[in-house]
Amino acid sequence: MSENIPQFRELGLSEPILQSLQELGYETPSPIQAESIPLLLDGCDLLGQAQTGTGKTAAFALPLLNNIDLSSKATQLLVLAPTRELAIQVSEAFQSYARHLKGFHVLPIYGGQSMGQQLRQLQRGAQIVVGTPGRVMDHIRRGTLNLDTLKALVLDEADEMLKMGFIDDIEWILEHTPEERQIALFSATMPEVIRKVAHRHLKNPREVRIKAKTTTVDTIEQSYWLVSGLHKLDALTRILETEESDGLIIFVRTKTSSVELAEKLEARGYASAPLHGDMTQALRERTVEKLREGKLDIVVATDVAARGLDVERISHVINYDIPYDTEAYVHRIGRTGRAGRKGKAILFVANRERRMLRSIERATRQTIQQLTLPTRELVAERRVSKMLQQVQEALDSEQLDFFKGVVTDMRHQTEVDTVDLAAALLFLAQKDRPLQLKEEPVRTREPRQRDDREGGRDRRDRGDRGERRSREFANVNMQRYRLDVGREHGVMPGNIVGAIANEAEIDNRYIGHIKLFDNYSTVDLPEGIPGEVLQHLQKVRVCGRPLKMEQVPGGGEQRPPRRGGQGGNRRREGGRDGGHQRRPAARTE
């Protein structure tokens, strides 16, 4: 393979897809993408061997999405994945790449999800279907998934499907596809059974093999925090307060997140600034120079902006948003621990992103240790310690005669003792950055134990889950809001939950009923959401559209305490009202 990796613009992708890639922070294709995209754009069958985390989803999604006929709602591309988690992940990737493609629809289908909801969505039409083999077979047998118009089929992680016993199902599905169709098969390993399937069904396939080269240095201490309970910003604050750090780089996915997170950190008293690809070169250089000189302590950066960044004082890299692939992760944390120096890398991992965490561990050949979040008490202790240090420095080096006189006058005028007066002055001095964190208990919830094979069910009792949700909504007054995005825009309830939870910092337990309609949706939220939060949500984009939230007069209700077995359980997902299924959230800007 040539050492000169082309840019995405040189590969022949359409302008709307290139625009999406730019917004997502993609700059240079990974090796698997650079080799696979031109072949798939030309209609070749492809046999790709690459590890998870090398960017193979984009390697097949971008060119095959490029070839979709948006004027037809018929199914043109089918992607088979071994697990529901991967099916959702691939579906969300397509949605992100297609954000500027009008009339585009992608549908994930898998076991354990409401069949009724899937049937309704299939009837409305989706150009791309991403599913697990068993559920795809169910729909083919029912006649609800028609493959007559299929142009291409992708077998993602074929070796995993082999291990899970899906190989016969895959053969059956392949036999029900049109004779003239394109096939791309991707597998980390290439056992003989997979090769036989490839030789039987692929026509003159081109082969692409990519060996994972990503490794990390021993001088970098790596850890991760499993996102749960606290908002990410609160967790980040605790880490920043308790880690002995010098310069930091915090990585996010989008330029919007870069600006917003830097502003929030500035408001909390941290010397921080954004660094993203839309900044002028001169401004980027000034920002990096400030970091180098110690005038800035934190840079919130996108992958594109941080390429080639080498600042000696960077002691920590924090992956606030998990990267899209392992190579990006290695590149990110390589900003610290350079030239033999020690460094720390901290990764925030949402429950649905554990798969990428495991991919990173495999690619780096290192186990990443789970981080225990610092307690409120420890944060308060560190802040008091820093305050004491500042007081001592003032006592040692500042002229305090004027201030001594002011304190003496205050004590006489208020007729309080010196300790009470000092406490009041300290309270005023730290009011903008309190020594004590706001009382906010950490809610740590164990991830659901699922059977990774499609059709698996949560192992916890459904009645317990219904009673738990009833307790969460006890006596909460809800207000209904209208959102300017609906089924015809490809929205799913999980997209709405993710956008509101991430952007408004509302725990998803307090996001109520979601109803999907053709060109709009409604969602119930607790009353009393601050005006500035609602104003921000107006601009948040889901499926390429701003939410434009507005209250529905008279909408919402009070949630009284309920008990399991007495009407306490919420309506089953996928009910008559359009469904309230909660899926992992799609990325939003």
Automatic annotation (TrEMBL):
Compartments where located: Cytoplasm
Region annotated Disordered, chain positions: 437-473, 548-589
Motif (Q motif): 6-34
InterPro entries in the record: CsdA_RRM, DbpA/CsdA_RNA-bd_dom, DEAD/DEAH_box_helicase_dom, DEAD/DEAH_RhlB, DEAD_box_RNA_helicases, DeaD_dimer, DEAD_helicase_DeaD, Helicase_ATP-bd
Domain named DEAD-box RNA helicase Q: residues: 6-34
Pfam families assigned to the protein according to its UniProt record, in alphabetical order: DbpA, DEAD, DeaD_dimer, Helicase_C
MF GO annotations: helicase activity
Superkingdom: Bacteria
Ranges for domain Helicase ATP-binding: 37-208
CDD domains, per the entry: DEADc (cd00268), RRM_EcCsdA_like (cd12499), SF2_C_DEAD (cd18787)
Record-linked PROSITE patterns: DEAD_ATP_HELICASE (PS00039), HELICASE_ATP_BIND_1 (PS51192), HELICASE_CTER (PS51194), Q_MOTIF (PS51195)
Enzyme Commission code(s) on record: 3.6.4.13
All residue ranges annotated as the Helicase C-terminal domain in the record: 232-379
Recorded family membership: Belongs to the DEAD box helicase family. DeaD/CsdA subfamily.
Function comment: DEAD-box RNA helicase involved in various cellular processes at low temperature, including ribosome biogenesis, mRNA degradation and translation initiation.
HAMAP family the record matches: DEAD_helicase_DeaD (MF_00964)
Protein name in UniProt: ATP-dependent RNA helicase DeaD
Provenance organism: Kistimonas scapharcae
Organism classification: Bacteria, Pseudomonadati, Pseudomonadota, Gammaproteobacteria, Oceanospirillales
